[in-house]
Structures are given as structure tokens and as C-alpha cells.
Amino acid sequence: MSASVAHGAKVPGRLVLVYSAVFLFCFILAPLLASIRGWKPAALFFTVAAVYAVFGAVSFAQIQIALGQVREAEPAYHDTYYVVSHGHFLWNIGIAMAVFGAITWMQTRFGAMLYPALTKILFWVLHVALIGSTSFQGVLAFVLPKPRRYIDYPEFMEVYVLVSAWSGSVSQVALVGLLCLLLWSVTAKWLARSR
Predict the structure, then answer these.
(1) 3-class DSSP assignment, residue 4
(2) Which residue in 41, 91, 161, 162 has a CA-CA distance of 20 to 30 Å to 113?
(3) What is residue 79's three-state secondary structure?
(4) What does the pLDDT look like over 21-46, one tens digit per residue?
(5) At what angle do helices 116-130 and 13-36 cross, to 10 degrees?
(6) Phi, psi for 177 (deg, rounded to 5)
(7) Using CA atoms, how far apart are residues 2 and 43, in angstroms rounded to an integer?
(8) pLDDT tens digits, 153-177
(9) 111: alpha, beta or left, given left = phi > 0 and alpha = psi -120 to 50?
(10) Residue 146 falls in which region: left (phi positive, over 0), alpha (psi -120 to 50) or beta
(11) H or E element: which one contains 93?
């Protein structure tokens, strides 16, 4: 989603800032409340999956409305203008979180959850890294000026790009850690049962 989606459709900058601020607030507040209430690790994953799904649907609807305005204003762009929706990858992340929620729920249900505290820590590492690598970009895209040349970007953009890249790497490490923890827990439970 951009402030100027196409030639004819303009999305107000303040609306985008409010949407992005609410988006980040809900991403942090929803799992934090679930964690404070002492919910199981699966509930944390399901809570975040629900937030991703809601904001993905809202983002998808905004893009479709803006594209509808473009098609009405300039019919020449009817078939040639293509937008990859922010909502699409939010849905994908939400689905991945829901899958991890289902896996951790199955572990808890069948007694294979050996390390719930470590699972919660890996959840928070994954979640904060995903916020840093995907969601922060949407907020800063509307706050910062957009120069035409690469050399005209401010110096701190390099730091921002590095933080975004590192948070993507951290999210991948957390993902691998969750998968290894899953395999370790299931294997340990299976070996304990076979003895």
C-alpha cells in the first residue's frame, strides 16, 4: 500500500499513519496481554495469527478500493497496473503463525511440550523480528521523504535497511529454533514412551 497507489488514487497520509500505528500497537499489545494472562504458547501463536489476518484483510480491501478508483479514473490502466498487496504477505505470515499454533497445541495436547518457556521465548524472538522486517517498513514508508536518486537518501536509511535485514535473519533463526525444539520434544517423548 502506498500513499499514491496509482495515478488517480490517493490515500491520505494521516490515514495511513493511523492505520500503521494501530497495526503495530495491536501486534505488540495482543500477544503481550495473552502472555501476561499466562496463556499457553499455542494461544500466543493463534493471537498473532488473528491479528495478521485482520490487518491483512483490511490492507487487501484498501488496495482493492484504490485499484477500483484507478480503473474508473483511467481505463487504460485496467489490465496493465498490478499491485502486490501488503495484505497478501500478512495473510501468509498469519497462516504460518496459525500452523505453528496448531503444532504447539498438538504438542501440549499429547504431552510432548517439554519446554513451554523456551517456546514462548522463541515465539517472542520470531514475532519481534517479523515486526522489524515487515511491519516497520509500512510505517516509515509514509513518514520519510522519497528522493528520486539513491544517493539522496538520508544516512540513517542504511541503518534502517541493516536492521530490517538482520531482523529477517533473526526471524529465520527463530523459525529454525522452533522447528528443532518441536523435533526434540517429539523425539524425547517418543523415546521416553518406548522405554
Answers:
(1) strand
(2) 91
(3) coil
(4) 787 788 888 888 988 898 889 999 99
(5) 170
(6) -60, -40
(7) 33
(8) 777 777 877 888 898 899 999 999 9
(9) left
(10) beta
(11) helix 86-109
